[in-house]
Backbone:
């Protein structure tokens, strides 16, 4: 699991790669939260293009970060999930909370 | 039950083994030449069941998780995930979408919903104090056979 965060003038992109499961989600969650709280971006896009596996742990991760972004006055977006990962997101109805592009 | 082939894998309930369980299932199922989608569905369902055992079954300590994968006639895949953890007192409630007993871990309460929608059949046998057995079945398509 890899994460790379770029932040320009309050617009941030977190690019993930690898497998996103319960084991990996903990560390990822801590890293994203640290960034959100310290940098306070207006917009955070999580790029799922490099994610090769995701189960419902990813849903918890997205919902939790969306909530934190809102509390900090910002907005979360999800980018590039593979079709199969999009199915997991759809099952959770996550598009009602977060924009998926 | 006529079993054409079978693999059993036993692992301690460490979260790092969620990936190991997926890898074992993938390797075993290569012989069936599943579609990418079928394999993704099965891997995801297995990941959910093993994660449930790690997070909920053994919430009070560590124990073993047993994974059994069988190939049955007519390209049917049978999967059983068994733990000897704390069990589920109310299975019906546990299977309700979005119900979770571990919100602090950001569990979304969708594990059983994912298993149900990605597999053809799902059965959960459990009672408080007696561990949990999850069995799932999925029939693979006849593509390229």
Residues:
């Amino acid at each position: 699991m890899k994460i790379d965060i770029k932040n320009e003038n309050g617009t941030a992109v977190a690019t993930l790669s690898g497998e996103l499961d319960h084991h990996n989600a903990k560390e990822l969650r801590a890293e994203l939260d640290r960034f959100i709280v310290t940098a306070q971006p207006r917009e955070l896009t999580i790029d799922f293009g490099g994610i090769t596996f995701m189960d419902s742990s990813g849903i918890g991760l997205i919902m939790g970060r969306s909530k934190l972004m809102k509390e900090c006055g910002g907005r979360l977006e999800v980018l590039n999930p593979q079709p199969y990962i999009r199915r997991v997101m759809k099952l959770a109805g996550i598009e009602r909370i977060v924009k998926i592009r | 039950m006529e079993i054409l082939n079978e693999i059993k894998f036993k692992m301690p309930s460490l979260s790092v083994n969620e990936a190991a369980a997926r890898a074992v299932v993938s390797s075993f199922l290569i012989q069936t030449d599943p579609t990418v989608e079928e394999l993704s569905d099965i891997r995801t369902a297995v990941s959910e069941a093993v994660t449930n055992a790690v997070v909920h079954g053994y919430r009070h300590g560590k124990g073993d998780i047993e994974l059994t994968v069988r190939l049955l006639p007519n390209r049917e895949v049978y999967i059983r995930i068994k733990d000897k953890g704390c069990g589920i007192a109310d299975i019906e409630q546990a299977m309700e979408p979005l119900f979770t007993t571990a919100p602090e871990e950001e569990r979304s309460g969708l594990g059983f919903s994912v298993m149900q929608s990605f597999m053809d059949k799902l059965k959960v046998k459990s009672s408080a104090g007696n561990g949990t057995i999850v069995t799932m079945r999925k029939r693979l398509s006849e593509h390229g056979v």
